[in-house]
Design brief:
Chain lengths: 112, 113
């Protein structure tokens, strides 16, 4: 157990629907990062939050949004889902700038 | 913008042998961090080793070591005494001062028994 908790582990939904992915960072970590990994692809950075505020944005679609709550957990909202949104979505947290990220086990999203 | 390149999509090594995975990166920054992550079939992302750019000494973690060549912007991973459990996708990653980590496309490592 890495200490970063992601729920749900698997999600199957239809095109056009909206889903919410949840992430609880490791205790003490203020930064939360979201990444998307499509089949046999590398990790694409989506968005970063630090202590409740958005800090950096990557290639995140307008249909996607995220937030980090006062208790530091984060949610990634994906709407108007398309088949191409099927992917593994990772959340990661970090204690300090000079450390690597600690990843959650990911949420496998399948859009049918 | 920073980029990370892994030129070997797949590699194979005999069990107990040594293998080196290549990674190059491009940046104009002088202070940054480099990482190797392992992603086994479980898809969990596991930090293998990290290197601070300001340190000349190469990082080592048990059977894993790096060859960090800052001037050449090269950061290769050496796995000694390869084991079946080392079979995974390996990602090289760069962390910039603006706190974002950029990943390479990965190298799939096969261990041959």
């Amino acid at each position: 157990d890495s200490g970063v908790t992601q729920t749900p582990k698997h999600l199957i939904t239809a095109t056009g629907q909206r889903v919410t992915l949840r992430c609880s960072p490791r205790s003490g970590d203020l930064s939360v990062y979201w990444y998307q990994q499509s089949l046999d692809q590398g990790l694409q950075f989506l968005i970063q939050y630090y202590n409740g505020e958005e800090r950096a944005k990557g290639n995140i679609l307008e249909r996607f949004s995220a937030q980090q709550f006062p208790d530091l957990h984060s949610e990634l909202n994906l709407s108007s889902l398309e088949l191409g949104d099927s992917a593994l979505y990772f959340c990661a947290s970090s204690e300090h700038h000079n450390y690597g990220y600690t990843f959650g086990s990911g949420t496998r999203l399948t859009v049918v | 913008a920073q980029t990370v390149t892994q030129s070997q999509p797949e590699m194979s090594v005999q069990e107990a042998e040594t293998v080196t995975l290549s990674c190059t990166y491009d940046t104009s920054e002088s202070d940054y961090y480099l990482f190797w992550y392992k992603q086994p079939p479980s898809r969990q992302m596991i930090l293998v080793i990290r290197q601070e750019a300001y340190k000349q000494q190469n990082a080592t973690e048990n059977r894993f070591s790096v060859n960090f060549q800052k001037a050449a912007k090269s950061f290769s991973l050496k796995i000694s005494d390869s084991q079946l459990g080392d079979a995974a996708m390996y990602f090289c990653a760069y962390r910039s001062k603006d706190d974002k980590i950029i990943f390479g496309k990965g190298t799939r490592l096969h261990i041959l028994p």
